[in-house]
Design a protein that fits this description.
single chain, 80 residues, alpha+beta, five-stranded antiparallel beta sheet, globular
């Protein structure tokens, strides 16, 4: 869905386990955050990233999930 409806978000999307994360280097304008929210993303203040659980809700962890789960950028895989 992101690939077709929001290509800019697709380019930034990182899959962490079964979740999708989107990070920006700086604070985004309200229209960007509203769009992410409409796609089902929520802001994780602790990790400073927008996250979408893709139906896999879990309790929080102190460890960085990127240390535990496979991660990749789907836009990179599609370009290869």
């Amino acid at each position: 869905m992101l690939h077709q409806q929001a290509p800019r978000f697709w380019e930034l999307a990182q899959v962490v386990g079964q979740w999708v994360w989107i990070q920006f280097e700086e604070k985004q304008p309200p229209q960007i955050t509203a769009a992410l929210s409409q796609f089902g993303f929520h802001w994780n203040r602790k990790r400073q990233t927008w996250q979408h659980p893709c139906g896999q809700f879990t309790t929080g962890s102190r460890r960085d999930p990127r240390d535990k789960y496979q991660t990749y950028f789907p836009a990179d895989a599609k370009a290869a």
